[in-house]
Amino acid sequence: MTAKSSPLFLGIDTGGTYTDAVLWSEAGGANGKVLAKAKALTTRHDLAVGISGAVDAVLQKAATDPAAIKLVSMSTTLATNALVEGQGGRVALVMIGFSEGDLARDGLKAALGTDPVVFCPGGHDVHGNAAKLDLSGLEAALPELGASVSGFAVCAYFATRNPAHELSARNLIRGITGLPVTASHELSAKLGGPRRALTTLLNARLISMIDRLVAATEGFLAARGIAAPLMVVRGDGALVSAAFARQRPIETILSGPAASLVGARHMTGLDNAVVSDIGGTTTDVAVLDRGRPRLDPEGATVGGFRTMVEAVAMRTFGLGGDSEVTLEDGALNPRILLGPRRLVPLALAGMMHGEAVTVELERQIRAANPSRMDGRLAVRTGEPERLAAGLTGAEAKLYELIGLTPLPVDRLLTSNAQNATLNRLVSRGLVHVAGFTPSDAAHVLGKQANWDAATARLGAELFARKRDGRGQAIAATPEAISERVLTTLTRLSAEVILETAFAEDGLDGAATVAHALVQRAVDAHPGIARLSVALDRPVIGLGASAPLHYAGLPPLVGHDCLVPEDTDVANALGAVVGQVRVSAEARVSQPQEGLFRVASGETVRDFLDEAAAIAAAETDVRAIAAGRARDAGTDSAEIEIASEFRVSTVEGQRMFIEAHVVAVASGRPRIAV
């Protein structure tokens, strides 16, 4: 069968800076063949623009009929980036059976921020027995909340053992407000209420973002006559249908990185490697071991929050080509600092807005003395006005001043206090800040040429004028500061790779890398006692800028660094070679001797016989997993069931405590006929 007659698969990856597309065919060898690939800028105000730019370019390069595409699969870093940057819609958290003190656990209060929370009496015990539910306070608050939030997160005490109270609250909220509601039992069957509430809260925040992404993609595909199923990569590398992902967007955190791992393995054939994927906003590092990425049994950690989402054991760092470049405070010879916040590179802002940017940068260069606000501009992201609900008076006033044309921050802000207000608008995803980034440094040095190099050079000149602790300019020329920035990015890339390796070895990765001896080894510092540090496996460098930033990596990590030919579209390629994989869980407990309680899905049933209870649990999870597999996009799922028992022995007699039954369904996604 030739590539021409084989079904074609379209992979899309929507990242923080670029949207990638790749057209792939199963024909052309054991690993198939990439027929065409392309990139376009991610357009956050209207994601369809970036998607259409990348996909149209691929279709044109391949000169293919869109109707020949039988499957479309998409990965995205939007959810990951939103959590790293502290962005997302304003949501209300409903806690049933919890106290205010529970907010202090597992980072829930920090994640909640200024979003509203409602406490209601109710919940269940460990065996699913109910306390008295009272939703009157929630019902009274809903009219006002419904007008100021984009969705709700509901978490009830021991909802994983009985979800009845979450279901009651969900129905009440939907009936009065019509807004999206995420219930914690839908996302995780694990115990640990505050962390489950945290996961639910983050899911609710991300719904509008992923919904816009899916809608934009579906609209584009329909306009191009591509009548193929749309799949989305989850954080564990599995594929699920777009409808499935819309309801559980939290599961797409680390979607892009997970797809990149699948793509890295596919492109290199390496079974053992450290995979480092550098994008515009983040660097994602994980370990391939015996051909498979490790999953994190404790749940994915992103943006400092430990969730209950099963995902690849990936460490995400706020380090990328578009990272904010700043100086260490208070040092005589200050270090260059990068991230974790992403800025719009000045080169990109200059290309998009022309003189509105360059005129202001030239004005700042003419000033006698440098300012802390030099080289910074603010511009609206173009988000719908309804997402600006709930702004404080100061935030609303500043937001009104900012438009779709960049404004210099030194003229926008009249006090230092307003800088915090601006940062809150950025965190809400309503405003972008443009400034000097490693991408600008690469343009200054001629190592990147896709945006406006002249604007990048103005930004570098302004940054080079900043003063050290002695009052001297930190660099003599724009080229000198740009070299320092790129060297810093490579050095920090080595550090995050080593940090991940140390963490995989059971050490405190960050503390180990920060240790003076490790720093001395990475620097290859000469001395009587010579130290070295080296990985036991090569690095696979992914990302469009990997050839630039990872060229100097091998001596820092003590091993080779492979950058595959299609590294720039590894995520998009990984999106089309994966499988659907979903699971379902049931718990069997013994609330009293001789009574066996099965909690599966949204039902709770009692049995008088252990074997009957286990059989019922297995039947339930098989049916639930099969249904989820169909919803997730496969008609050919194979289902495996595993049971784990907790028992004790008392006076020689076996005593049943609990059983955990899990069904895993997996299969290739359905394709268009």
Characterize the structure shown.
The two termini are about 15 Å apart. By secondary structure, the chain is an alpha/beta fold. Strand 11 (about 275-280) and strand 12 (about 285-290) form a beta hairpin.
How many individual helices? 22
Shape: globular
Compute the number of strand runs: 29
The parts where pLDDT drops under 50 for at least 5 residues are none
In brief:
The protein is α/β, with parallel strands linked by helices and 673 residues long. It contains 22 helices and 29 strands. Strands 3-2-1-4-9-10 form a six-stranded mixed β-sheet, sandwiched between helices.
Task: List strands and helices in order, with pairings.
Elements (H helix, E strand, L loop, with lengths): L7 E7 L3 E8 L7 E9 L5 H16 L6 E8 L1 H7 L6 E6 L11 H5 L4 E4 L15 H11 L4 E6 L7 H14 L3 E3 L9 H31 L6 E4 L5 E3 H6 L7 H14 L4 E6 L4 E7 L2 E2 L7 E2 L2 E2 L8 E3 L5 E5 L8 E7 L1 E2 H8 L1 H12 L10 E4 L12 H9 L5 E2 H4 L4 H11 L3 E5 L2 H7 L8 H12 L13 H27 L4 H6 L1 H7 L16 E4 L3 H4 L4 H4 L3 E2 L7 H7 L3 E13 L2 E6 L2 E5 L2 H23 L5 E13 L2 E15 L6
Parallel strand pairs: 1-4, 4-9, 5-6, 5-7, 7-8, 11-23, 19-22, 23-24
Antiparallel strand pairs: 1-2, 2-3, 9-10, 11-12, 12-13, 12-16, 14-15, 17-18, 20-21, 20-22, 25-26, 25-29, 26-27, 28-29
Helix pairs in contact: 1-6, 2-6, 4-5, 8-21, 9-10, 9-15, 10-15, 11-13, 14-15, 14-16, 15-16
